[in-house]
Specification:
By secondary structure, the protein is an alpha/beta fold. 48% of the residues lie in helices and 16% in strands. The strands form 2 sheets. Strands 5-6-7-8-9-10-11-12 form an 8-stranded parallel barrel, surrounded by 8 helices. Strands 1-2-4-3 form a 4-stranded mixed sheet, with helices on both faces.
């Protein structure tokens, strides 16, 4: 299988992730049982598409997608020479971008929808023949979107938050259980990183934990923190592998929502500049919202961590579907903007798999569910069970 993708559109205005589109197209052909065939995709602007639309369909103006079967393109060649050629799909990225805004989805998501649509045309589906044919094609498209758009080849990283080990310790004012020991156990069980939140009120993680974990963590240490002078100074001294800036209220039991990046750009830009000078990557914990993603990019963040709490706490299946769709589209938007995308908050053994299956998710941050499960089966088993959930999602 060869996917030939040519992008002649303005790459600055309409950035397209070549690897993502090719990987999804390969998954599409495999799902359709056409993995032995080659496909060509050309991304272009409206002007170029309008020319093709006029020449081949005798219609003015651009359209979103055109497809040309190999049998029509290579009429002068014997059938056996083109048996592995499926055909060409032309897509106007400019039109796709306008449509993505109306549909409130990412540009990549819309391009993939058009690749699916064009591929079905190459396979003989034609919604213009009759209402019946249109319904058949529509149902096939939705089946493919459901199965293709959420597949991934490699599992995302699993970072484990050990705050609640410290919560138990602080409840008795003793020295056990020790989050430093818990972090080591998590790493031995397969964790890819350790997350801790040093709160201003020191309700769980203490300064001692931060300094010791910096010395003992063998994977990656992610320090969650508010952008306050005291905590910033500690982060600059400790130099974790990355920090995640989060909102923080004294009265909340846990972080209740994402950071308002758009409303705090000046302060956050200053903090990120300090961390960048110290070579510490910065992630911003945000709600799955396009405005916050754009602001995160503007202030210089390297990562965003999408807040998954509302998805995990949904009261019914319909509400959960809505919240999941927001996460899915926000992950696409952030990824295509050049940000690395993490996700976390409230994820457990029931809700993690769907988020883990999203191809744009780099890392999952999970704490409470794993530490709670560890009470019954131990840290090692709890971590391995969560890794199994993530692995099965791929």
């Amino acid at each position: 299988m060869a996917i030939n993708l040519l992008n002649t559109a303005d790459k600055k205005r309409f950035p397209a992730n070549r690897k993502l589109l090719i990987d999804r197209t390969k998954a599409l052909l495999t799902f359709l049982g056409k993995q032995q065939q080659d496909l060509s995709i050309v991304l272009m602007d409206d002007t170029e598409m309008a020319r093709y639309n006029s020449e081949f369909r005798h219609k003015k103006g651009p359209t979103n997608v055109l497809s040309f079967p190999a049998t029509e393109l290579y009429t002068d060649l014997p059938p056996q020479l083109i048996s592995n050629q499926l055909g060409d799909i032309l897509i106007s990225v400019e039109t796709a971008w306008v449509e993505s805004k109306k549909k409130q989805c990412s540009l990549h998501y819309r391009i993939c929808e058009l690749i699916i649509h064009g591929t079905l045309h190459l396979l003989g589906y034609d919604h213009e023949q009759s209402t019946q044919e249109a319904l058949i094609m529509w149902e096939k498209e939705h089946q493919l979107i459901k199965n293709i758009m959420r597949r991934r080849k490699t599992m995302p990283y699993l970072a484990i938050n050990v705050d609640h080990v410290a919560t138990i310790r602080e409840a008795r004012g003793t020295i056990e259980p020790d989050p430093v020991h818990a972090a080591a156990a998590c790493e031995l069980a397969g964790a890819d990183g350790i997350v801790i939140h040093l709160r201003e009120d020191r309700r769980h993680i203490q300064d001692r934990d931060v300094y010791l974990l910096r010395k003992t963590v063998k994977t990656r240490l992610n320090l969650e923190m508010a952008a306050t002078k005291e905590i910033i100074d500690i982060a600059l001294e400790v130099r974790p592998d990355m920090i995640t800036l989060v909102p923080e209220k004294r009265e909340e039991l846990t972080t209740e929502g994402g950071l308002d990046v758009a409303g705090n750009e000046k302060k956050l830009r200053k903090t990120i500049h300090k961390m960048t000078k110290a070579s510490i990557p910065v992630s911003l914990f945000i709600d799955p919202d396009a405005v916050q993603i754009e602001s995160a990019l503007e202030v210089g963040a390297t990562f965003v961590e999408l807040h998954t709490g509302r998805y995990c706490d949904a009261r019914d299946e319909q509400e959960q579907e809505i919240e999941f769709h927001l996460i899915e589209q926000a992950a696409e938007l952030a990824f295509e903007s050049g940000l690395k995308v993490n996700a976390g908050h409230g994820l457990d053994y029931r809700t993690t798999a769907r988020v883990a299956a999203l191809p744009t998710i780099h890392e999952l941050s999970i704490g409470h569910a794993i530490i709670s499960r560890a009470v019954y089966v131990g840290v090692d088993q709890a971590v391995r069970e969560m890794r199994d959930c993530i692995l099965m999602a791929g």
